[in-house]
Amino acid sequence: MSKKKSMTISAILFLALIVIIVVLERMLPPTHIALAVLKKGCIYSLVAVSMNLLNGFTGLFSLGQAGFMLIGAYAYAVLTIPVADRASVYMYFDGGIIQFSVPVFVGLLASGLLAALCAWLIGLPVLRLKSDYLAIATLGFAEIIRAFFQWDKLGVVTNGSNMLRKYPTFSTTLFPFLVSAACIGVMVLMINSSYGRAFKAIRDDEIAAEAMGINLAKHKRMAFCVSSFFAGVGGGLLAMYQTSIQAMTFKSSMTYEILLIVVIGGLGSVTGSCLASFLFIASSEWWLRFLDTEMTIGGFKVPLLRSGFRKVVFSVIIMVIVLFARRGIMGDREFSVDGICRFFKNLGKKKEVKQ
Amino acid sequence: MSTNVLRVSDITMQFGGVVAVDNLSLEVNEGEIVALIGPNGAGKTTAFNCITGVYEPSNGAVSFYGKELVESYPHGKMKKLYKGENVGKYTKRLVPTPDKITKEGIARTFQNIRLFSTMTVFENVLIAKHMRAKQNLLTATFRLNHAEEARMRAETLELLKMQHLDHLRDEIAGSLPYGIQRRLEIARALATNPKLLLLDEPAAGMNPQETQELADFIRQIRDEYKLTIFIIEHHMDLVMRISDRVYVLDFGKLLAHGTPEEVQNNPHVIEAYLGVSQDA
Ligand SMILES: Nc1ncnc2c1ncn2[C@@H]1O[C@H](COP(=O)(O)OP(=O)(O)O)[C@@H](O)[C@H]1O
Ligand SMILES: [Mg+2]
């Protein structure tokens, strides 16, 4: 199939998704769980793809994602709270020292840039470490950042361990969808560019990549900064979604969730990460909810169903996936219009052979 | 008198207490095919790694077309441990990373093939064009470098055609037969536009027929790309057939050097190396 044709079909599919979202928003009550899942799914897709860029495409096992999201979330919230509301938000810190506020998109851009700047600063020492050590160092960084943002002395900026709120949020699902889609689009373009190839070369064989003239330190740092930039934007979106944030909530368990999504979706598959994000969020927040509530059918109390059981089932499902589909749903392949057409063609061929 | 391409001066590489390369000096001149031979564990690959920046030598220097590329002297813990010679002769530390060396014009292959195994044949070669492309992360991402990208692709395709690999361009490198992987690795090294090519046991695992073809191939690329070639090899017949000069390494030390005939008839060499391989 020609490139043009498959691009047209992809564009049509994208528009169809937008239409579906608009229709769902019209039909469902605004508090319906499906809409919440869609919003959070979009945000997690973005963060998962950004993590995949590092872990799946460049082969750097980093666990700092929650830290960079936190930086992004705070950058967004701190910069966009309207001046009039600052006194009430920063009530323990005399209204804070920042007495201006920027528009939403500038705030999101700042989220990404600040996260990228931090990545650039810690990149030099941290990226020299290999595999497990890199994971430990980045995990440590995320924990330090979390403590740092709760530090009282910084309260005039970060509000200490108190909540940040009253910053602009979004009501329509289209907002996180479009922002995430644009960001993921940029990452896909990059993965398919000369630099993306260099990242994959580093993943496949560092020594050979270096022998091909690829500057390891520079390219690793680049991947790290880009990944952190988009994690930061994702953090900003998450802040908007949650309407209020606190550093406390950006625990390492958040990084593990995203890592799980990346692994389930397939290391090195962008569409896998997106698909897995929605499945993960839908399962953990919606489809498996019923496991947490006690249920009686015709006077018979269903055993095991109680608060917390959902987590047990969820863990079992993940273990099964990791055991039986070690390379994730997609492996390192991508979900594409071309691929689907080929799949159906092959299906047709097989049937013909049988006849 | 032809120009000197590579000059290795008093290189010693010591790992802890093990001296893998001991005070090695050698020269390779323009247009030559020079072989480095020696029993297993003699330090041949280690010597390559010192030239290409994979290891920082414990002592000694490397220059390329008269320009100093690498220099080091025992420092840190090695100060006390160092067992080699020429202490104090080198006083500078110049240790570029391997990518810098490649940019200078030295390409190499590896003893145990190192391809980008999940990438296609085409991409494997295309990677070599990345380092010299006029682009940055933004222009590449937003396709503002399309002229440059098109040039990279065209050059890659041309090289693949010349190496008769273009029919395999979309195959995944890791799934190719061994012999083709070896050829692809050489093609990939050529794609960096080197002046000097280092080949580490390119005939390993090949049968006599394939080895013969490889000999012709090496001479052919030397002439076609105006290369100088420095080759580590185990197959004595290949070495004798193609090389202009031979260096023999044993336990890290230079044992002999000269034309293939001279080396073949050197009693030390026969004892240390040829004798062993004739018994085997
Ligand atoms: N990174 C290293 N650390 C410790 N010892 C090494 C290292 N690399 C090579 N050596 C040692 O150096 C010696 C020479 O190895 P090598 O250069 O691979 O030999 P050759 O290529 O001639 O077969 C061997 O004894 C090997 O164990
Ligand atoms: Mg070797």
Explain how this protein is built:
Chain A has 355 residues and is mainly α. Chain A has a domain of 223 residues. A two-stranded antiparallel ribbon of chain A has the order 1-2. In chain A, helix 2 runs parallel beside helix 8. Chain A is globular, with a radius of gyration of 22 Å. With 280 residues, chain B is an alpha/beta fold. Chain B has a domain of 183 residues: P-loop containing nucleotide triphosphate hydrolases (Rossmann fold), CATH 3.40.50. Chain B is built from 11 helices and 10 strands. In chain B, the strands form 2 sheets. A 6-stranded mixed β-sheet of chain B has the order 6-7-8-3-9-10, sandwiched between helices. Chain B has a 4-stranded antiparallel β-sheet with strand order 2-1-4-5, with helices on one face. The radius of gyration of chain B is 20 Å and the shape is globular. The N and C termini of chain B lie far apart (40 Å). The model of chain B has no long low-confidence stretch (mean pLDDT 93). At the A-B interface, helix 8, helix 9, helix 10 and helix 11 of A face helix 3 and helix 5 of B. Magnesium ion binds next to helix 1 of chain B.
In a nutshell, what does this entry contain?
Chain A has 355 residues and is mainly α.
Throw out a few tags for this protein.
heterodimer, A: 355 residues, mainly alpha, two-stranded antiparallel sheet, 70% helix, globular, B: 280 residues, alpha/beta, Rossmann fold, six-stranded mixed sheet, four-stranded antiparallel sheet, 11 helices, 24% strand, binds adenosine-5'-diphosphate, binds magnesium ion
